[in-house]
Amino acid sequence: MDRFDRAGRSFASLCRIMARLRAPGGCPWDREQTFASLRPYLIEEAYETLEAMQAEDPAAHCEELGDLLLQIVFQAEIANERGDFDAAKVADGISEKLQRRHPHVFGDDPAENVAGAWVRWEQSKAKERPDKASRLDGIPTSMPALLWATRVGQKAASIGFDWPDAAGVSDKVKEEWDELLCAIAAGDEQAMEEELGDLLLTLTSLGRHLEIDPESALRAAITKFSRRFRHVEADLVGVENPLSISIDHLEELWQKAKLVK
User: Fold this and answer.
1) What distances in angstroms separate CA 83 from CA 24, 30, 79, 80, 87, one per listed residue?
2) Is the pTM of this model over 0.85?
3) For the chain, domain boundaries
4) pLDDT digits (tens, 9 = 90+) for 189-200
5) Best CATH choice for the domain 3-100 from the list 3.40.1190.10, 1.10.1670.10, 1.10.1370.40, 1.10.287.1080
6) Span 130-181, pLDDT tens digits
């Protein structure tokens, strides 16, 4: 049995277990869940999966993907009970979409590089949704702002509304930074907020041109900062008032923390 047959059997087994839990005589907790009650679990499991990915822990990654898959199967079972759709339709739908949006793989429209593949993907999506007034209409505005900004930039770039290269974006970053400094100097709070937003949005475009995911880059930076800050905190154990420590001494502790791997 190859890995695809095993995957099919394992997925079917998971679906049967979920159906049993939801059936009369199943688990009282599972039976009372609804789409609304499952919303926070879906978000939580997605973030836990991200943490496992960032930690590069294969065992934890595998486990968290299982928890995330459970949420999909759970919702599909509830939908099946309502007569809306089932897990098979979910899997069939995404399989058909992947083939439809990859004509350079499953059709006769080759792509020579990543950029070409992305264009084919966006063109296929546009054909599927001719009633959309804008390419931005399909982007959930409830996304975290950094991810939302990244997606908006990608959509705009798909029709050529973009800088030609990273150097062009870098110049725009400098321009936005200067405008922010002017707003700060003027003490204009509204302008400061607007210019900071413009700067952050432009930085996501720089990340795209550098082929760096801004969300992942920021998460890595936060993790690094948190690790180093904990070392600084450890050096301050016993200090009654940390605010009494001079900024120069704190800088020394910070530089010391940076040497710890």
Assistant:
1) 17, 18, 6, 5, 12
2) no
3) 3-100, 132-212, 216-258
4) 999 999 999 999
5) 1.10.287.1080
6) 666 788 988 999 888 999 999 999 989 988 899 999 999 999 999 999 999 9
